[in-house]
Design a protein that fits this description.
By secondary structure, the chain is an alpha+beta fold. Among the domains are: 66 residues; 163 residues, Heat Shock Protein 90, CATH 3.30.565. 64% of the residues lie in helices and 13% in strands. It has nine helices and seven strands. A five-stranded mixed beta sheet has the order 2-4-5-7-6, covered by helices on one side. Strands 1-3 form a two-stranded antiparallel sheet. α3 crosses α4. 22% of the residues are buried. It holds the Pfam family HATPase_c. InterPro entries: HATPase_C_sf, HATPase_dom, His_kinase_dom, HisK_dim/P_dom, Sig_transdc_His_kin-like_C.
Length: 347
Amino acid sequence: MSFTLFDAEEQAIEQARLLRDRLASAAPECCEDVDALVEAFKRSYREQQRLVRVSDRLQGQLAAATQEAERRRREAETAFQQLKEAQEVLVRAEKLASLGALVAGVAHEINTPVGIAVSCASHLSDATGKLKTRVEGGGLGRTDFQRYLTTAIDTTALILANCERAARLIHSFKQVAVDRASSERRRFGLSAYIQETLVSLQPNLRMGNHSVTVECPDDLEMDGFPGVLSQILTNLVMNSLTHAYDDGQSGRLSITITQPDADTVLLVYTDDGKGIPPDHLSHIFEPFFTTRRGEGGSGLGLHIVHNLAVGPLRGGIAVESGVGQGTSFTLTFPRHTPETDGAEAAG
């Protein structure tokens, strides 16, 4: 036996009809009032039916809207995950590009001392060949021998000096490259490491005739992730070279290190470039925000800097700038980086 929503109402109407039939013979004067009541009840009954139909329709629409909202939520979550993965890929690509620039920069730096050493070795080889010819011909004089000794002393000194310079460059490159690639924790002198990092940037700095001054205590020793600092400094310098100066304009960059207390390091990086407009200042750490889209700006450099500063470095970064007044980044971080897992350190 099945029941509908309005069984009770329909039964009430039927009972009212039977009552009205009985009253028609017993009390006809009441029939008109009963008819009015029945008609009013019928109107209410019809209105209830209409409202139920509207409610059913709205519930169907709500269910459909809920399903559509759920579908779109899943699509949004999928799109967000894909965007996050794509962003991580782009960030890794940006870091690899930075490492590639490091390799190219150091290779360019090494080319000069190696080239000088090769030229000196070639000159010494020629002088030695001429000396051998004179000895074999029996025509070697005291003056010739003295001239050869002078040449040998001068060229070997140049060869040694340039080979030592190349060796220092290779050592710096090797250490910085390993730090960038592995993100291993170790103890290091901050002043020397900043200089090693700047070696890779010399070709870019010389191209625009830019200068960098560094003020850092020589005895400041760190315990943390040097590759993170190298990446941050590289991105800050390249950001200045890309955005702060017009073509042909030279600039002055500075890196100043102080210690507010024994366990805290304050690094202030400053350029004297064109500055950042106020409406851009609050967006510079956002991913893909750049004013040089298609002109060498990826919009990831400062985003990486911010992530490294607040992530593996366990510090913070702030920026101050004004149009025509240059830009200053203040990086605060602990001298001994708190322990963290390798994945986070890799950034």
